[in-house]
Every structure is written in structure tokens, then in C-alpha cells.
Design goal:
The protein has 218 residues and is an alpha/beta fold. Helix content is 45%, strand content 17%. The longest helix has 17 residues, at 122-138.
């Protein structure tokens, strides 16, 4: 299978980068698509999450591998990414929520797709805009915006107007996925077991769209 590198990134924290990266990895694995995950976040949240789960269930067979990606040394990082580009299948990279690490620019420049989790509050929209401007200076990655943790009960006219306007603007420069609503079943993600019915219902439309616009479903 052709190699594709997906980033899950935004400079705004708390938008669900790690959660969606993990859920998408499990989703791809269940679709029979080869997937490998690199955790580039300084907190290594996804890698630590996997280790905790393995400590509890030592016999579980992980559906996908996750390794830490050290971004501290530019030469070794470049060599690692070159090797990653040769991996058949999809490589997901969970990126830090900042632009302070200059070595991250190399990861961004090599990416095929950038999945950008976000919400529609003013601070997150502004941060997303800043991130996209910086990203486009160094990367030709296909942009996919993932509205995440959305409270679907919000019905204030001004909020809906701003949400519609933001979606239209982002749709000019990339793909805006169907909303992923705020739900406990998403927050309680795991890295070892199949997605349950409620999780599939929550992410199915959004992740099916990713497959479609990136040609992964061919």
C-alpha cells in the first residue's frame, strides 16, 4: 500500500488530538488498512496510555503499534522520517500542541495530510487560523478540519451563525468533517480493543469522510 503520513495537530490544547489519533488508528486497523502511530508529543500521552492498558491486560494483542518520536535532534529526526516514508500503509503522528519546536517543521514538511481537531469557540478558531497560516508556509499537506467535542444541543442563533461562517471559510482551504459530538464514549478511548458501537456511531461519518477525501478507501 502507498505510504501516507497523517499529522494530528493544532496549537490549541484540549481539542482532542491524541484521542482522535488513537480512534482513527483503531478505525483504520478494523478496516484492514496497515497503520503505525508515532507519538511526538512531549507528554507522550498516547504512548503512556498504551503502556497503562498493557499493564492491565498483558495478553492483549495490540491492533496497531505506537512508538515515541524524539524531535529533539534534527539529524536523527530526519533519518527517522525518511524511514517512516518507506513504511507501507498509513503513519499517524500525534504532534505537540505548539509551534515552539523548530524540528517539528521537518515533520510538517513531509506530511501528506494534516488532521486539525478544533471546536468553534472564538479562542480555538483564532488559534486554528494561526496554526494553519504557519503550517501552509512549510507544508503542502492536505488540510482536514475535525470539529470535535461539539455540544449538539447548542442552538443559540449567534453561535450557529459563527459556526456556519467558520465552516464555510475553512471549507475553502480544506475539508471540514462532519461534527464529532461531545460524548463520554469518545473520551474513554482505548488502544487495545475494537471500537464499540457507540464510538463507531460517534466517529463513523467523520472518519469515512477522511477515507474518501484522501483516497484511502480505494
Amino acid at each position: 500500500m502507498e505510504n501516507k503520513i497523517f499529522l494530528f495537530s493544532n496549537i490549541k490544547g484540549g481539542v482532542g488530538k491524541t484521542t482522535l489519533c488513537s480512534l482513527f488508528a483503531s478505525y483504520l486497523a478494523e478496516k484492514g488498512i496497515p497503520v503505525f502511530v508515532l507519538d511526538a508529543d512531549l507528554q507522550a500521552s498516547l504512548h503512556r496510555h498504551r503502556q497503562r492498558e498493557k499493564d492491565v491486560d498483558t495478553d492483549a494483542q495490540a491492533p496497531w503499534a505506537v512508538e515515541i518520536l524524539d524531535t529533539s535532534e534534527s539529524n536523527s529526526l530526519a533519518e527517522t522520517i525518511k524511514k517512516v516514508k518507506k513504511v507501507p500503509g498509513v503513519v499517524l503522528i500525534d504532534c505537540p500542541g505548539n509551534l515552539n519546536d523548530k524540528n517539528l517543521a521537518y515533520i510538517y514538511s513531509m506530511a501528506d495530510v494534516a488532521v486539525i481537531p478544533m471546536s468553534f469557540d472564538a479562542d480555538t478558531v483564532d488559534a486554528t487560523g494561526i496554526f494553519v497560516k504557519a503550517l501552509k508556509k512549510i507544508s503542502n499537506a492536505q488540510l482536514i478540519f475535525a470539529p470535535n467535542r461539539i455540544n449538539v444541543s447548542e442552538r443559540k442563533a449567534e453561535e450557529l451563525r459563527q459556526r456556519t461562517q467558520t465552516t464555510e471559510i475553512l471549507g475553502i482551504i480544506g475539508t471540514v468533517l462532519p461534527r464529532i459530538k461531545q460524548t463520554v464514549t469518545i473520551k474513554r478511548y482505548n488502544t487495545l480493543y475494537k471500537l464499540d458501537k457507540n464510538q463507531m456511531n460517534a466517529i463513523g461519518d467523520a472518519f469515512n469522510t477522511i477515507l474518501s477525501v484522501t483516497d484511502l478507501n480505494k
